[in-house]
Amino acid sequence: MPTSDLEKIEKQIAQLKARKSKIKARQRQAEKRRDTQRKIVIGATLIAHAELHPEWREHLWKILNENVQRPYDRELLGLEPIQAKETAQ
């Protein structure tokens, strides 16, 4: 039984939607990679600057201590856990 023109068009639409979805997923993945790379460059720049300028290093650590919330991230940076910090005050 031959496929009608409408069925052919519906199949093409479904294929195009699937293709569009894959393209959008690739774009999101590429943007996430670019965002990660930007963060790496910014972080490396801040670390290098902190190594050269001790007064700024103290300011950077204060910012990190006030803003980094996740326990894993705090541990990674050598910061006190938030609970211990709050208890000590």
Descriptive report:
The protein has two domains: about 1-50; about 55-89, no CATH class. About 85% of the residues lie in helices and about 0% in strands. With about 90 residues, it is mainly α. α1 crosses α2. It is built from four helices and no strands. It starts with a helix and ends with a helix.
Question: What's the gist of this structure?
Answer:
By secondary structure, the protein is mainly alpha-helical. It has two domains: 1-52; 54-89, no CATH class.
Helix-strand layout with pairing:
Elements: H1 5-52, H2 54-67, H3 71-77, H4 82-88
Helix pairs in contact: 1-2
**From the alpha-carbon coordinates, what is the Rg to the nearest angstrom?**
25 Å
Helix content: over 70%
Structural class: mainly alpha
Give, in order, the helices and strands.
Answer: HHHH
Binned strand content: under 5%
Residue stretches low in confidence (pLDDT < 50, at least 5 long) are: none
Number of domains: 2
- Average pLDDT, to the nearest integer? 92
Number of helices: 4
Largest sheet properties: none
**What is the 3D form?**
elongated
C-alpha termini separation: 80 Å
Q: How many strand elements? A: 0
